[in-house]
Amino acid sequence: MSNFLAIATVSAAIQRLLEPVVHAAVLGANVWIDRPDVARPTPGTNIYLHCASVSPALRHQELPSRPDGTPASSRIAVDLHYLLTFHGDEDQLEPQRLLGAVIAALHARPLIAASLLTEVLTAAAEPQLRHSYLAASDLADTDELVGLEPDPLILEDLAKLWSLFPSVPYVLSSTYVARTVTLDPGDEP
């Protein structure tokens, strides 16, 4: 179980995982964590957390209870749903190259390893202070692994998702889910 920073830590870990892949696929490409309606002057991949849902697999998991019947823990397991968008010169097939590189990378590394989380937390403490607020995250200390997998949306669901950004033209995109992040509020229930 992790503190409230686990969600942001997962997003930063995905960014860190994809940066070398995106740089190798398209020279000068970047990885952002932002809304899809932000204009992109350079090629790259954007990571947008569009939804967090209670994990259906762990929703009804019995919590150990105390002798008086009160729950011993108020933890909650959530799945994080991401929209990945790919930007660049269409004539040079940059969005397609980025999509292919990202799909291959996430297939090859379907778990957010403790070593990747350690890299994120180390970067939070570096002088550049990248995501400095994550220094207090304890996700790297948990035994639970967060998995990354495609989140195939039917065309209707994808259209609904993109309708949230009416002023943005559709760009090449893919959806992924990070399963399962267990949060512990840290207080007595």
Give a verbal description of the structure.
With 189 residues, the protein is α+β, with helices and mostly antiparallel strands. The protein contains four helices and six strands, in the order αβββαβαβαβ. It has a six-stranded mixed beta sheet with strand order 1-2-3-6-5-4.
Entry keywords:
6 strands; 4 helices; single chain; alpha+beta; 24% strand; 29% helix; 6-stranded mixed β-sheet; globular
The total count of helices amounts to 4
Amount of beta strand: 15-25%
Class by helix and strand content? alpha+beta
Gyration radius, in Å? 18 Å
Distance between the termini: 15 Å
- Total number of beta strands: 6
Question: What is the 3D form?
Answer: globular
Mean pLDDT: 87
Main sheet: strands, sense, barrel: 6 strands, mixed
Q: What are the low-pLDDT stretches, counting only 5+ consecutive residues below 50?
A: none
Q: How helical, in percent, are the residues?
A: 25-40%
- The helix-strand sequence is HEEEHEHEHE
Strand order of the largest sheet: 1-2-3-6-5-4
Would you spell out the secondary-structure blueprint of this structure?
Layout: H1 6-25, E1 30-33, E2 44-54, E3 76-87, H2 94-108, E4 111-112, H3 114-125, E5 146-150, H4 155-162, E6 173-183
Helix pairs in contact: 1-2, 1-3
